[in-house]
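hi! just following up on the protien thing from before. the input was this:
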Amino acid sequence: MTDFVIPTPPVPAIPTSDGGQFPVRRVYCIGRNFAAHAVEMGHDPDREPPFFFQKNPNNLDASGEFPYPPHSNDVHHEVELLVALKSGGENIAVENALDHVWGYGVSLDMTRRDLQGNAKKMGRPWEIGKAFERSGPVAPLVPVEQTGHPDQGRIELKVNDKLVQEGDLNQMIWKVPEMISYLSEYFDLAAGDVIMAGTPSGVGAISRGDTMQASIEGLGTLSVQVV
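and the predicted 3d structure came back as:
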């Protein structure tokens, strides 16, 4: 009789600017957190309770390549601030929320928009449009000791050197401390959790062969080739 060996899966991790690795536990993504993007997606930009969906930790990818995914003809880019937590808990007060942040980074929330749209029409979850393989390109995380807590600064995305998304972090409807506090009311946050903080307007389709360059002031640039 052959012994059954339980496989040990690798722990997903994001590289850090100092050459280390940040192990990822969960990925929370906030929806419609820039007013102009809410409008372009057909929603009221007024401040309503935030909502979140999740990607899988192993959807995050620092390879610099984005394989065009199957079963979609309409894949969109969304440049986002990524917030990485070093600790967590329940019912975290807004005024204490930033104490739990390890650092920040540049990320992309790639979206199979056609599949997401079909899911919305049928009242189904969005995971098929959001949580697919390598759907979260990321740049190395920068520790808060180097960045501080950025609450303003330019965020933009260029596709083939053409500017397609631009905004400022101060345009986020829900700020980072509020996102952390709100999430902690519903989930037990912990070290290794990351939050993708929403995208400005200008989302649009990409094609194989495109080069995406996402940048956030003070955090550097993420360059990704669509293959």
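Helices lie at 35-40, 113-121, 127-130, 144-147, 176-186.
The two ends are 45 Å apart (CA to CA).
cheers
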